[in-house]
Amino acid sequence: MLTPELKQKPAAIGFREFVAMMALMQSLVALSIDAMLPALTEIGKELGASQANDSQLIVSFLFLGLAFGQGIYGPLSDTTGRKPSLYLGFALFLAGGLLSLFSTDLKVMLAGRFLQGLGLSAPRCIIVAIVRDQYEGPEMARVMSFVMTIFIFVPAIAPTLGQGILVVAHWRAIFAALIACGIFTLVWLAARLPETLPLERRIPFSLSRIKNAIQEVCSHRVSIGYTISLGLISSAFLGYLSSAQQIFQKQYELGTLFPLYFAILALCIGGASFANGRLVMRFGMQALSRWSKRISTVLSLLFFLYVLSVGGLPPLWTLMAYLMAILFCFGIMYGNLNAMAMEPLGHIAGVGAAVMGALSTLISVPCGILIGLSYNGTVIPVISGFTVSGILIVFVMHWIESAPQKSAIESDFSE
């Protein structure tokens, strides 16, 4: 049960409402992605996609917008405050939703999806800054874990919602539902969330300040190292996400049961985030991340070898067992890596969150697109993505922890 016991700079609204609002804003990203999955093939056919894998771009272009947008909203929120930047993001999201709703070919659809991603990068980036405005260290990790716990139920049910809409209406109704959800969230945000960045802490907008902040983030081993690790995790996850509909609905012929299997896997991430919220205060961020990294990498290597031995077509139950374990490990790592990357950046939380989000997304999008477009009727590309990203994360986190002089976050939470 969520308890309002984190008393460090409490929000004016209640703790539960604060977490719920942050989770809903974060969930718009997942809803905009996962509600589309059952409709990808239908959308691609109607809008003239030349190849089956081209429909994956409807997912990937939203991530591309997320990557570019986060570099804008972080510095903007440091100057104008968090809420005005969120208002701009929601305006772009709603405009992109309308463009997608009325699209007549794939290019217009992709333009709308990019615009949606550009808008959604505001809450995706600024939520981290808002939480960092009020909490730090393990407390921030705990809040982010609770946000992720609630957020993860959206991808668990979003494909079912999308499938349900397809049963009674055209796929365009999915975009109408997204627009309605965006309007509801915007009204709740405007009415209830206080501004978390007071006037005395705002920083005038300047390109030199942004340049200096980027240099600071990129030169800090802890921040850049964990940001790269987040990008590697996200690249493997995006590859899986882009291919999930084809793998489950076509390769394993699950049809309308696809949302159920997708929900089971999504709940593994949610369960991990909730468990992390309970465990992080006891064991620390680094220890939990370290063990999750080790387990996921070893499992990926072993399962990759097994998948090769069966020609890329493992029994469904083995694939599900593997993905449940891997996504649970990712759920443990995600909130902790975010918090550890942001820990040294409290004095530049807005631009720090922007740089961190933009860099991690710019790493994940091309790699995730490559994994997704490599889908060849087997699970080899997806499992390869998890395996390679796991190995690279091992090296990156070893590089972070082998710094000659440990930063405060590393010394406070080392084993």
From TrEMBL:
Pfam families: MFS_1
Any one of the GO BP annotations: xenobiotic detoxification by transmembrane export across the plasma membrane
Record bears the keyword Disulfide bond: no
SUPFAM superfamilies reported in the protein's UniProt record: MFS general substrate transporter (SSF103473)
Keywords annotated in UniProt: Cell membrane, Membrane, Transmembrane, Transmembrane helix, Transport
GO CC entries: plasma membrane
Membrane topology value: Multi-pass membrane protein
Domain of life assignment: Bacteria
Secretion signal, residue range per the UniProt entry: none
Membrane-spanning residues: 18-37, 57-74, 86-104, 110-131, 143-161, 173-191, 224-242, 254-275, 295-313, 319-337, 349-373, 379-400
Single GO MF annotation: xenobiotic transmembrane transporter activity
Family designation: Belongs to the major facilitator superfamily. Bcr/CmlA family.
Protein name: Bicyclomycin resistance protein
Gene name tied to this protein: bcr
